[in-house]
Amino acid sequence: MTQPIQLFSLASRQAEWLSVRQEVVAANIANASTPKYRAKDVTPFNAVLDNSGSLQMARTNPAHLSGNPEGIGGNVEVREAELVNEIGVQESGNTVGLAEEMTKSGEIKRQYELNAALVKSFHRMMLMTVRK
Description:
By secondary structure, the chain is mainly α. The chain is built from 3 helices and 2 strands. It has helices at 6-30, 45-50, 98-131, and strands at residues 40-42, 78-80.
């Protein structure tokens, strides 16, 4: 009996999680000057892996196919982000720290590139074994 290759499934789940996180970070950046806006973040990927449910893409338009009626993945929670010590709550009531959000955006980019490189290398390795 053959076992499914878990690496591709794991990489796909992480790519979906990274997509959701990037969407949340982009919303934070877009609302950096909105009074009383509270910065948000998502559940860490480790917590997503610990849950048994599967990660789904967000349905952003009613015309899109719905894999999960709850919208963003069943075990990915968008929650208020912890306050950044340097920023705190601004006079307007906003809690977005642009430097922190840009750092998160760069981290997401690096994680996505690493994910894609690992999948590409593993795929190439599989092709080499099949050719022989």
